[in-house]
Amino acid sequence: MSPLPSPSPLARHAMAYVLAGGRGTRLMELTERRVKPAVHFGAKSRIIDFALSNAMNSGIKRIGVATQYKAHSLIRHMQRGWGFMRAERNESFDILPASQRVSEAGWYSGTADAVYQNLDIIESYNPRYMVVLAGDHVYKMDYEVMLAQHEQSGADVTVGCIEVPRMEATGFGVMHVDAEDRITAFLEKPKDPPGMPDKPDTALASMGIYVFNTDFLARELRRDAADSHSSHDFGSDLVPYIVKHGHAVAHRFTTSCVTSGVEEEAYWRDVGTVDAYWQANIDLTDVVPSLNLYDRDWPIWTYSELTPPAKFVFDDDGRRGTAVDSLVAGGTIVSGSRVMRSVLSNNVRVHSFCDVQGAVLLPGVIVNRNVRLRNVVVDSGVHLPDGLVVGEDAEADARRFRTSAKGVTLITQPMIAALGA
């Protein structure tokens, strides 16, 4: 007798919709030329690759990405790196820029509106579930686990949540939940966040991840679109309305976080400030990083540029090419310099007699001779002049570059050009 077939994974009946239109102003000049999800991360990826890879690895094969602010580099990246989806395998990958689909205004007025304006495209695929994702966070998560909870609970919306110290949750949307994790209140950036029933000193903060049944979501989006008092945003309008009038359930990230078994925490980061972005990159250089990019069971898909291997040259006293506790991408050459605890992206050149520590160097950066760097983020394509010293004199750094509250220096090419003005 043949065994009974196993239940079909819910992810096969889901569509992921990634919201990737936000500028990310807290990253300062790093988002002057690109949207936040398009910012490089971890030597070879982009921030958006994490949400997209989680969807692929979870088994979701229909994906839409809503873009808006300075989207060219993001769209180019997705066309190059995510064009392998095939319609004949019931797969789809739709890039959905803001356009005059609903009104002549054109732009998406909020996160919910960014889905509403493309409802006809979504409904043409007839997915049973919608997984709505923020495209600007770094984490690994199995959305199938969240889908299963959503189905079993009978919720109208299931909201992905992380646990944070209660008084650190003032910058998040925070959920008040009962003993069964039913959301009884949704508070946007409260001054006094509510604690969890089982952990009163900890709050449940929204990750910007939502699961809906598609037909329910479509009805709610149309209702919200007709409300002239709404800002048409999931966190500010749609989810609070459902909490009040329907059935909303919290999904705890610790139950669906993907690890390789050696990490000590459920890793999720909003890399929305220069400090947070720098720290998340530098954390990857730990011997056992909290985010494991080497887990082949849950790969982070991305566009892989064809590059030669990284290269380290010269072995003379005072002129030795080395990199220790660092990530170094293809096409990079470290020539007679020391690199420590740093992240070097594709095609970086570090010329001789340099000392580079705590540096995040984006693609195409050229570090000329006798440069000393400490705790910096250098934007793509920047040419650092001979003898530049950054990270040793805070006042001098603040006059020339962008410095953060925690002492990280951001350097862009216009800042370098202004040095010679």
TrEMBL record:
Pathway: Glycan biosynthesis; glycogen biosynthesis
Catalysed transformations (reactions): alpha-D-glucose 1-phosphate + ATP + H(+) = ADP-alpha-D-glucose + diphosphate
CDD domains cross-referenced by the UniProt entry: ADP_Glucose_PP, LbH_G1P_AT_C
Keywords: ATP-binding, Carbohydrate metabolism, Glycogen biosynthesis, Glycogen metabolism, Nucleotide-binding, Nucleotidyltransferase, Transferase
Domain Nucleotidyl transferase: 17-285
GO MF term list: glucose-1-phosphate adenylyltransferase activity
Residue ranges of every copy of the Glucose-1-phosphate adenylyltransferase/Bifunctional protein GlmU-like C-terminal hexapeptide domain listed in the record: 308-411
UniProt signal peptide: none
Protein's UniProt name: Glucose-1-phosphate adenylyltransferase
Organism per entry: Roseomonas haemaphysalidis
Phylogenetic lineage: Bacteria, Pseudomonadati, Pseudomonadota, Alphaproteobacteria, Acetobacterales
